[in-house]
Amino acid sequence: MPHIVVIGGSNREASQSHRIAEVIAARLEPQGATVDLLSLRDVDIPMWDEEKWSSDKPADSAWNTVWAPVSERLKKADGLVVVTPEWHGMASPMLKNLLCCCDQRELAFKPAYLVAVSAGAGGAYPIAELRMTGGKNNYAHWLPDHLIIRQAADFRPGDPENKAPDWLVNRLDHGLKILCAYAEAAKPIRSEVVDLDILKNGM
Ligand SMILES: Cc1cc2nc3c(=O)[nH]c(=O)nc-3n(C[C@H](O)[C@H](O)[C@H](O)COP(=O)(O)O)c2cc1C
């Protein structure tokens, strides 16, 4: 049974990415996964600064009190769903910051399913951005398929207000099924094959 962490990549209180991350978490459980919803709406990860790498940071440093528990949650993951809003054609800054903070193998060689959320007709740019720059040193393994949810407010599977087409919901479920299969299959690759002491940072 894979353990999947669903990352909601927006800090907005009324975030559609958060709501859709909840929908995804609920749809993962029937696939046999255990799920942890890590929403950047609910956890205020500090912006990366030099103290993160300091060996004598104070006990009350946010790197100890806020980041360390997030890091532990991510380390438990066998796979991830990364839900990013499109903000000005980009992935959200707090999501990029989280990826920047993952320097302790939290994501390394773990399959990650990208889901972009747009209020309108966007969503392609943050996928392209994350595929290109989101995984060099943290070694997140972006799956070859991703999902773009446009007109996000209409995406409410199982709700009478839903206006999302069946094909899109079916595609999400199939993407989650693929993710869970990859998450199981990748376990021995991490434990028996990959040596990050050799790789260190990505090239
Ligand atoms: C600062 C900001 C910039 C945005 N820029 C875009 C954009 O470039 N393209 C787009 O499709 N939607 C854009 N949106 C709308 C988001 O797609 C919309 O808020 C959507 O619900 C996902 O973000 P959320 O999870 O924060 O709700 C923007 C929203 C914000 C708050």
Q: Could you describe the 3D structure shown?
A:
The protein is α/β, with parallel strands linked by helices and about 200 residues long. It has one domain: Flavodoxin domain (Rossmann fold). It is about 40% helix and about 15% strand. The protein is built from 7 helices and 6 strands; from the N terminus they run βαβαβαβαββααα. The mean pLDDT is about 95. The structure holds flavin mononucleotide (FMN). Flavin mononucleotide (FMN) binds near residues 10, 12, 119, 120 and 152.
- Helix content estimate: 25-40%
Total count of helical runs of at least 4 residues = 7
- What's the CATH class, please? Alpha Beta
What is the CA-atom radius of gyration, in angstroms?
17 Å
Please name the CATH topology. Rossmann fold
Kindly estimate the percentage of residues that lie in beta strands according to DSSP. Answer: 15-25%
**Averaged pLDDT, please?**
97
Structural class: alpha/beta
Straight-line N-to-C gap: 33 Å
Number of domains: 1
Low-pLDDT windows of residues: none
The ligands bound in this entry are: flavin mononucleotide
Shape: globular
- Quick one: CATH superfamily? Flavodoxin domain
Query: Total number of β-strand segments?
Result: 6
The main sheet comes to: 6 strands, parallel
CATH-derived architecture: 3-Layer(aba) Sandwich
Order of helices and strands: EHEHEHEHEEHHH
